[in-house]
Amino acid sequence: MRKEEVRDLSVVTHLRTSHAKVVEQLGLAIVGGDFDIGETLPGDVDLEQRFDVSRSVLREAMKTLAAKGLVIAKSRVGTRVTERCHWDMLDEDVLRWHFESGVTREFIDQLYDIRLVLEPATAAFAAASATAEDCAELRGYAMLLGSPDLSWRDQAVADLRFHIYLTLVGGNLFMDSMVGFIKAALDGAFTLTYQQTGGGPRGDGIVNAHLAIVAAIEQGDQNGARIAMETVIQRGRAAALAAIEGSSRPG
Fold first, then answer.
1. Which of 158, 170, 163, 167 has the alpha carbon at shortest distance from 10?
2. Segment-wise mean pLDDT, segments of 10 residues, the chain, 251 residues
3. 132 Cβ contact list (under 8 Å, min separation 6)
């Protein structure tokens, strides 16, 4: 992804092809536990009828799920669900399916642990290479967070664009490949938090926390940018964990 493409970045997943729809429905069913670990999926004829697709579309969908680590096909045995240790948890779809199926405190903690490894480093990289135009772009996204004039979904998009743009500013090709993971992690956690809280505005605190990242980047302060990003991530962790706790309380 290029920096100029971030302004059009959205959190909406468009399923335009039959292949994409089969991958989505089967992937979500596997992650959601409709099929047990080690269970053999229904045969091709059954799945073709269920999804109203051709044999070639179904096989391509199975190849996609296999590439994500969710299934493995064996001759004379069929296609079975693999153990979770084989699932590609950095894959955007796999992570999104987990959020849609419902996540636990342990899942959120582990997710934010990985964000703490990756994103403070991207902030430090950005502090070493950002231009004045980059900082202006980041500041614009930060100022949208918590705005009473924006829906929580629009704020989620602004938050997403801030973090993805920052990742790209760093110019590290390996970090750039993590854009899909960061996108799914942010959208999943944001949606979890604001569906539970009713989507109310977040106020100046979250804006200032993001602006602190921008200020450090402008000053070329790599350590300061790293610390400011850690603060934002820990705030997000606390909000997501509180949302899980709230959703688990009896109504």
1. 158
2. 84 76 95 95 92 94 97 89 96 95 95 96 96 96 87 86 94 89 91 68 78 98 98 94 75 44
3. 218
User: Where on the phi/psi map is residue 87: left (φ > 0), alpha (ψ -120 to 50), or beta?
Assistant: beta
> What is the structure's pLDDT at 149?
84
Could you write out the DSSP letters of every residue in 93-124?
A: HHHHHHHHH---HHHHHHHHHHHHHHHHHHHH
DSSP states along 183-202: HHHHHHHHHHHHHHHTS---
Delineate the domains of the chain, giving CATH numbers in brackets.
18-86 (1.10.10.10), 104-248 (1.20.120.530)
Q: Which two tokens mark 250?
A: 């009896």
